[in-house]
């Protein structure tokens, strides 16, 4: 608990924490703005780009808006959660304090677990910020078609998709450790997002076996024309997550940190 508290204190005192929370709230606000423009097309004027963006909102009701929020967390989660993970693990090396941290009378496994606990709490906060700000903006602009059942079902899909995305952050942590910084893990997070889109477009049949595509398959927003997630899909995702965790723990336990 002392280790978790110490890791949490680092996050609370950092600018990165405020920046990520504000950014996720801003994205939710922008989605609400697009919905508002969809209901008031005269605001778009002759902007073809803005009109094209509002066209993805479907009927412009709550069902369409909630689906959009799920799409946003699936697209933003790998990068946002990846940045959080790379910051928590990479900053010790970037600030050159890793050796000081290891000199404390705390086991290295405890440090690793504490960092992952803080990353989980941070990512859940960002997820709730996006969803709750989206709800607030949606209510404020009076989106039609409110249904408590639909909102609850969408929230469950939203939060479960976020958890599946979070589980894929352990390889990012491992890369942050072996690279001793931020650049490689953030690049890896962006690469996985690009590869996921490539697989969805060019090789859809392997999506159930590509870990970073599984959250999208679970959410159902990929459509019925694509393969569905199977038991083996979640097994692969969990194996990748466990492998990333073990690799991170092994690096902290056995690698030369000097």
Verbal overview:
This protein has 258 residues and is mainly alpha-helical. The chain has one domain (2-254). Helix content is 75%, strand content 0%. The chain contains eleven helices and no strands. The protein has helices spanning 2-12, 15-39, 48-54, 62-94, 98-102, 108-140, 148-167, 170-179, 183-202, 214-219, 231-254. α4 runs parallel beside α8 (170-179). The mean pLDDT is 82.
Provide a quick synopsis of the model.
With 258 residues, this protein is an all-alpha fold.
Question: SSE layout and pairings?
Answer:
Blueprint: H1 2-12, H2 15-39, H3 48-54, H4 62-94, H5 98-102, H6 108-140, H7 148-167, H8 170-179, H9 183-202, H10 214-219, H11 231-254
Helix pairs in contact: 1-6, 2-3, 2-4, 2-6, 4-6, 4-7, 4-8, 4-9, 6-7, 6-11, 8-9, 8-11
Please identify the structural class as seen in this structure.
mainly alpha
Report the portion of residues in β strands.
under 5%
Number of helices: 11
What is the total tally of β strands? 0
Shape: globular
Unreliable residue stretches: none
Share of helix, binned: over 70%
- How do the SSEs run, as a string of H and E? HHHHHHHHHHH
Largest sheet: none
């Amino acid at each position: 608990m002392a280790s978790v508290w110490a890791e949490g204190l680092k996050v609370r005192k950092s600018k990165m924490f405020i920046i990520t929370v504000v950014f996720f709230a801003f994205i939710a606000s922008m989605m609400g703005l697009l919905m508002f423009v969809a209901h008031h097309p005269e605001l778009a004027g002759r902007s073809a780009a803005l009109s094209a963006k509002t066209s993805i909102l479907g009927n412009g009701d709550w069902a369409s808006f909630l689906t959009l929020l799920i799409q946003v967390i699936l697209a933003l989660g790998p990068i946002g959660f990846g940045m959080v993970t790379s910051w928590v693990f990479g900053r010790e090396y970037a600030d050159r304090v890793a050796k000081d941290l290891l000199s404390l009378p705390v086991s290295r496994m405890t440090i690793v677990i504490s960092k992952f606990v803080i990353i989980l709490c941070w990512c859940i906060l960002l997820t709730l910020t996006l969803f709750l700000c989206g709800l607030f903006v949606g209510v404020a602009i009076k989106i039609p078609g409110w249904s408590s059942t639909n909102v609850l079902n969408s929230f469950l899909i939203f939060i479960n998709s976020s958890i599946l995305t979070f589980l894929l952050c352990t390889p990012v942590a491992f890369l942050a450790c072996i690279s001793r910084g931020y650049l490689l893990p953030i690049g890896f997070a962006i690469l996985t997002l690009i590869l996921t889109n490539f697989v969805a477009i060019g090789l859809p049949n392997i999506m159930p076996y590509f870990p970073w595509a599984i959250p999208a398959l679970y959410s159902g927003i990929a459509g019925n024309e694509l393969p569905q997630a199977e038991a083996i899909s979640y097994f692969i995702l969990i194996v990748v997550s466990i492998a990333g965790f073990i690799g991170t723990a092994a690096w902290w336990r056995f690698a030369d940190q000097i």
